[in-house]
Amino acid sequence: MYIIGQEEINALARVIESRKLFKINDGAREVENFEKEIKAFMKTDYALLMTSGFAAIQSALIGLGIGPGDEVIVPGYTYIATAIAVTAVGAIPVICEVDETLTIDAEDMEKKVSKATKAVIPVHIQGFPSDMDKICAVAKKHGFAVVEDACQSVGGEYKGRKLGAIGDAGTYSFNYFKVITSGEGGALFTNNRQLYERALIFHDSSAIAFFGSQLDGVNEPQFCGTEYRVSEFHGAILREQLKRLDPIIAGLRSSRRRLIEAIAHKMEIAPSHDTCGDCGTTVALRFGSEKEARAFSARFGGGTLPIDTGKHVYTNWTPVMEKRGALHPLMDPFKMEANKNLNHNYTRDMCPKTLDLLSRTVYIGTAPDWSDETVENLAKRIIG
Hints:
The protein is an alpha/beta fold. It has helices at about 5-20, 30-40, 55-65, 80-90, 105-110, 130-140, 195-205, 230-265, 290-300, 320, 350-360, 370-384, and strands at about 45-50, 70-75, 90-95, 115-120, 145-150, 155-160, 160, 170-175, 185-190, 280-285, 360-365. It has a domain at about 5-240: Type I PLP-dependent aspartate aminotransferase-like (Major domain) (Aspartate Aminotransferase, domain 2). It contains twelve helices and eleven strands. The longest helix is centred in the middle third of the chain and has 32 residues, at about 230-265.
């Protein structure tokens, strides 16, 4: 979270005073209007607001008809929720390397393609854009879908298009640690009508046919799903947060650019697939070895080595690595007959390039309101 204040307080008060807290109402319709505003921002045909980025990824996979017998390729560096969304639909996550930008390695991704591959989930981690041209080309060549995990890159771009609006579906997260926030929350974006209808039914199957006219024009038959519905509080806060998004991203990019300009002559900066589209939340410094990276971090008195970020690294995805995809064995994708011969031969050293890059990188977080003096002082500390 970067900026929140009186506008959000006023929005919450507006909902409370209206006494129309449920998302289907004849009042301000905060959730409905946020969905209209965010899809206009993303330039997609459809948007669904729900409880989390995980919920959005799972809903996208359901919308694509993915389940037992299917593989979904995910990078070895992403929050565990990306992989768990795959197991949640009964499919198998196939883990591949990241490239020098710390986003999915398109070449290794293609090596992991099999006849069971139904989708790939490129993750724009830390606001770093994935190589969407290559990823989409490989997906088209082999006939599988692209579901963007843009949960850490709200407002970011790749060659002028919003991250999350390029693949068959895209997802955002609005939890407390994201660029804009409602404490918790997520969104799904797509131009695919069938995917949208299925995700609509899945994400709120217990209420979708009971409240309002949500199924008007929907041709997909109803099926049993889950309940990822949000309240009007989420919609109201996010409508105000969305107004802040462009200035926040502009500020972050400015801070990142000025800091890099001040240190690039002394420090190696990790490459990017689109420097201008990068959200600007993070400056990634690259070192020759983990020893050098840790020595810098100790001297600098801060920074984060991504290898240390727990469940963002595949080796720490305990339930996935130990193949416990569900509590009940008959619901566990790793025990399903349909998945018996799929690629879930996980080992801790299966992505050596990823582990090496994560251990030799140090993140320096930025803020959208850095003064030139702040940048100058920070640059001096980094250079040492």
